[in-house]
Every structure is written in structure tokens, then in C-alpha cells.
Amino acid sequence: MLDKIAAISDIHGNIWALEAVLQDIEKRRIKNVVNLGDSLYGPLDPLATAKRLIELDIPSVLGNEDRIIISPPQGTAVSPTWEYVTRSLTAQVLDWLRAWPFTFVVENELFLCHGTPQSDSAYLLEEVSPHRVLLKASEHILEELAGIEQPVVLCGHSHVERTVYLSDGRLVINAGSVGLPAYEDDLPFPHKMETGNPYAKYVILSRGPTGWLIESVAVPYDWKSAVAAATKNGRPDWARWLGSGRA
Length: 247
Known about the structure:
Layout: E1 4-8, H1 15-27, E2 33-35, H2 46-56, H3 64-70, H4 80-88, H5 91-98, E3 104-106, E4 110-112, E5 126-128, E6 133-135, H6 138-144, E7 152-155, E8 162-165, E9 171-174, E10 182-185, E11 191-194, E12 200-208, E13 211-219, H7 223-232, H8 236-244
Parallel strand pairs: 1-2, 4-7, 7-9
Antiparallel strand pairs: 1-12, 3-4, 5-6, 8-9, 10-11, 12-13
């Protein structure tokens, strides 16, 4: 029976943050780790991040920005960051990434996805309006999870850690982001996601006598090196997000 597990997500090529999180996980003697996607894309160090994840050999699901590495959208211009990432990665890494599933189930108890069970580019727990980002209504989350039988759903994508209890007794947990604490996006409406600090985030689930204990962990790391890499690779926006947790 699975008693304790660490969930990491949205590393975005930030090897400095990943190493700090893995050290914290090791210090806590947690043996089981899962990865919820968006692992390599970003103007940081995608190859070193891939090599570290290959060494770990942990269950991982494909995120939307993993997918565009191996299958860029047709008819749209690729960005300099996409070119940097794909130039950095080897054929072996690309083959390894192609083998990742869209969703994954652990011991028929945890359901893993990046966004929602149907879409790697949609938020499971957040509703984006033209004016703000809100916690999605419980009934709408339940609609997204139709057909999912596992009592715990782990997701990522929004980079904001949340634990949501549903009316049917299930838990939905967003693990936050290891490697990118804030960002801006244009879809479905222009919006920002911000944690307010530059720490690397992950979540620990520990089984207790009355249910799962959920611990959100914020790990300090050498974010100045990540900021320098983003600046060097032409992304002052990423540098700002990485250094402050604000967009």
C-alpha cells in the first residue's frame, strides 16, 4: 500500500530548482515520486533536467509544453525559446519524452494528469474570465472528472498549489511548480498566475488514520542562477518571474 508520495510538476528546465527539491525529498526519505509534466520547456537548462529525470525513472505524464517540443503546432511560427530547447535536446531525450503517457494511474488510487483528464492545456481547478482567475465551481470540476474512479487526482499546469475537496469525497491536488513560480498567458483570456515568491514548490501526500495529509513544501534554491540563464537566453520576462514569483 502506498503510504507516502511526493508530487512534482512544471519544472520547465529549471535544474537548480529540481535539484533542491530532490534533495529535500531525499532528506525526508520519501521513496515514491511522480512528475506531472511540463518538465523541459523554458530558456534554462532542458538537457540537464532531462538527464536528471531519466536517472530518476519516475512515473511522468506529458504536459502541453512537453508536447510542443515533440510536436510543434502546425501553421504557427516557432519561438526562439522552442528553438533553444529543441537544439539543446538529444534524439535519445526526444524519444524518451515521446514515450510519456497523457495520464497515469498509481495503484488505482492516484490519477495523474497535467491539465485535465481530457486536455493538457486546460486548467482543472481554475476558471479564467476576462477580468480575473477564480477557483472553479465544484460541479464543474466534477464534470471534468467524469469517468475517473480514483479517490485522489493530481494535476499541474496552473503552477499554483491547491487542494480541493469535492462533494463526492475525492481530493484534487495541484502540486504547484518546481521551476516557474509565476507567468503570464493570453488564453483563454490574458491573465497572470503568481505565487508571490521565487521558491521551488512540490507536494507530499502522507496516509493518515483519517485520510491523506497534504503538505505543500516551498524550497529555497539558487534562483539567481536560473534568472541569469533566462536573461542570457533572451527572456527577461522569465527572469522577472523566476526572481520574484510575480508576473
